[in-house]
Amino acid sequence: MADDVRRWSDELARDPASLVFLPLGETLRRQGQLDLALKIAMRGLERHSHNADAHDLLARISVDRGELQRAFDEWDMVLRLTPSHVGALKGMAFVRYQQGNTAEAEQYLQRAAEQGGDAAIDAARAKMRGAGQGARDAGRGAISDELPARSAPLATHHASDSRALFADILGEHEQTALLLDDQGLVLAGVYLGEDGSDVGAEVGAELSGMTDSARRAARHLDIGDWRAIVLETEVAVVTMGPSAGDGLLLVAASKATPLGLVRRVLDRCLERARRWLEGGR
Amino acid sequence: MISPFGALLGTLTRLRGVRASLVVDENDGIVVESNLQIGQDGDRVAALAASLYRKARLSARAARLGTATFMQLEAERGRICAAGHNDLVLVVVADPAANIGMIRVEMIKAAGALP
To answer: How far is B1 from chain A (nearest CA, A)?
Structure first.
């Protein structure tokens, strides 16, 4: 195992975009090196923000760290990306179970069973229906597999469906997209910062301020309505386009991404946003 | 007087679809040197483009995206491109059908030569 960790670490050092961060992070998690595992998972997510397994890894690490709601949100993201992900359903059941919400936990187990879950899920559901602390303790292992049991206060946050609106367009590339309203507030999409947290609100607020200047410049120079802004920086390529209701769509990609590709992704995301705002998808 | 930017702007203005090229002080939006086709209002272009580029640069930094290197505003009937270095901004106004790839390459190269 130590050899594997060394080999994966070397490979990741050679190629930071490698997917070996997944087994490496999981192994470190199992070894109890949670801070290191978290760091590996975060870095992986920076480059693979729409990889379901990466979010699953972060969720597992979060559970081990006692951050149940964060784990739930990450598994929720996994389901947006891969709706039939049994591991995510079991994980969300585990979190709800730990939070004392047995009814919702059972709903997630039901969905996991429908997706072809294993016998342990059926056993957990049967025991859960028996209610009582004994059943709760017995069901824990089946729900959580190797996840340790932790307690956490019940949180009320519910991740929004809209976070994964552009996921299939963006794919596994190092790209992210945000749809903002006319106030610069996030309507859809996600933007992960260096630490893996969603910094969409912050980035959106800062960049949306550019549109007023763009509108003013286009008007005074008599070049018609603005269609897109392309901004290249040391680390990223950002394209922005106007969406319905004076909103803004922003697509960001790593500096290595071809400019023309980012521009095409912006057009596709604009079309998706238009349909979504009109009520369909 | 021989302008230090004359040759640089001349190269840009000769590119297909370019209507104007200017070197502008980013802080006050005042033209340092320009090469304009007839009908282009250099002062207005300079002020607006410098303001837009400054806003883009500050927004990128605030969003933790690093230093801005190139910006393009695409509109129905034209494009504004800007690339900065220190306090100077190189600005190009171009037609919608201009070869933006070539303009971008030349501008980034030229911006690197600004003092």
So the answer is: 30
Question: pLDDT digit string (tens) for A2-57?
Answer: 778 888 988 888 888 889 999 999 888 888 888 888 889 988 888 888 888 899 99
Q: Say how far apart CA A160 and CA A277 lie, in whole Å.
A: 15
Residue labelled with tokens 């250099």: B42
For chain B, say whether A233 makes contact (Cβ under 8 Å).
yes
Report the DSSP beta bridge partners of residue B89: B24, B84
**Neighbour-count burial of A158, counting CB atoms closer than 10 A to its CB (0-12 exposed, 13-18 middle, 19+ buried):** exposed
In Å, what is the CA distance from B104 to each residue of A81, A236, B59, B98, B111? Answer: 36, 16, 21, 11, 10
Residue pair A203/B28 in contact (Cβ under 8 Å)? The answer is no
State the pTM of this model: 0.59
Mark yes or no for CB contact A231/B60 under 8 Å: yes
What ipTM score was computed for the predicted complex, to two decimals? 0.89
Residues 248-277 of A with CB under 8 A from B: 252, 259
Write the pLDDT tens digit of every residue in B31-75: 998 888 777 788 888 898 888 888 888 888 777 788 889 999 999
Extended strands (E) in B6-105: 18-25, 31-36, 68-75, 78-85, 88-94
Chain B contact for A229, CB < 8 A?
yes
Spell out which residues of chain B touch residue A206, defining contact as CB-CB under 8 Å.
59, 62-63
Pairing of strands A226-233, A236-243: antiparallel
Closest-CA distance of chain B to residue A242, Å: 11
Among chain B residues, the shortest Cα distance to A217 is held by B48
